[in-house]
Design a protein that fits this description.
By secondary structure, the chain is α/β, with parallel strands linked by helices. Helices cover 42% and strands 14% of the residues. The protein has twelve helices and eight strands. α1 crosses α6 and α10 packs antiparallel against α11.
Length: 321
């Protein structure tokens, strides 16, 4: 197994090089002495700014070279500009090249990793497609971003997949289960179920040493060891505890739900208050639920779901009054 040089990261690392700047995406390059290259694809909420890319901090800490594909909007990486960065990526990829991304980025890693020179794929909660005609009613999250002309042949197929691909997903989370089902029969794809993390499987890779160990398992093709590692790491994340608390609410175990969620308040106040609002509604305490939604909005102003539920509760309280 390789070992990263793990250089001391400079207090102010040099900004990455912008190798391509198009209408839909940027390609950034961060050199490094490490033994593998990370080809990352960013999430739908990322916005190309010439500085940030998915996994950049991880690569800096491990001394790994990074090729970062960063969107300018939720574009799902259209072919028109991917073909323009292909030769650059193939030329700069050194050692084993891992295509890595989450959600929209996971789609990019699966669909375009091989084309851009990757040998392996680590896709966290990815989509196989956002075409509503293929996803059906089970996943309507991203249909509004589907552009027939731009995404005419977007679905991931077996010939797109680089080497061995690990797809992380939560089988309890319906929309991602639909997407995993679309990928399940593709040669080269291994599904690694990680229950009770919802759409947050990428959090199981948090920590530079943890992610590097995951890359080692991926390159070795040891998916059993990779899943064991990620399941263990999952228990350290707040999302795991919130998902357990949500399950407890569904089963009427409201005191247990409160105990499970309590440790997350300090690290994820938004998530904590959203779950506690759900608990308050389940036990018939709308005023308490409204308080939790207000706290959620204090943690993240403009959160649409919290605003929607709070507005409904306020309106209902007014009607009762």
């Amino acid at each position: 197994m390789f070992q990263s040089p793990m250089p001391a990261a400079p207090s102010r690392p040099e900004p990455p090089q912008v190798l391509f700047d198009g209408e839909h995406l940027q390609l950034l390059y961060q050199p490094g002495p490490g033994p593998l290259t990370v080809l990352s694809f960013d999430i739908m909420h990322a916005r190309a700014n010439g500085r940030n890319a998915f996994a950049r901090k991880l690569c800096l800490r491990n001394g790994l070279p990074l090729l970062g594909v960063v969107p300018k909007y939720p574009c799902w990486y259209p072919a028109t500009e991917i073909v323009r960065i292909a030769e650059i990526c193939r030329r700069l990829g050194r050692g084993p090249v891992i295509a890595y991304g989450a959600s929209m980025g996971g789609y990019g890693a699966l669909r375009w990793g091989k084309f851009l020179g990757a040998h392996h794929v680590l896709a966290c909660s990815p989509q196989a497609t956002i075409d509503p005609g293929q996803t059906g009613p089970g996943d309507r999250r991203y249909g509004r971003y589907f552009q027939p002309a731009q995404h005419a042949v977007m679905a991931v197929r077996a010939e797109h997949v680089a080497g061995q691909a690990a797809v992380l997903y939560d089988p309890r989370f319906g929309p991602d289960r639909v997407q995993a089902g679309l990928l399940a029969d593709l040669d080269g794809v291994s599904l690694l179920p990680l229950p009770f993390v919802a759409h947050g499987t990428a959090a199981c890779l948090s920590g530079s040493a943890n992610a590097l160990a995951a890359f080692q398992h991926l390159i070795a093709g040891d998916f059993a060891a990779l899943r064991r590692q990620l399941l263990a790491r999952r228990k350290l994340g707040g999302r795991y505890h919130l998902e357990l608390a949500t399950a407890a609410i569904r089963h009427g175990r409201h005191a247990l739900a409160q105990r499970l969620a309590a440790p997350v308040l300090a690290t994820d106040p938004l998530g904590y208050h959203m779950v506690m609002a759900r608990r308050a509604m389940a036990v018939g305490e709308p005023a308490a639920a409204a308080g939790h939604y207000r706290s959620a909005l204090a943690a993240k102003p403009g959160h649409r779901i919290a605003e929607m539920h709070l507005a409904k509760l306020v309106a209902e309280a007014g009607e009762v009054a």
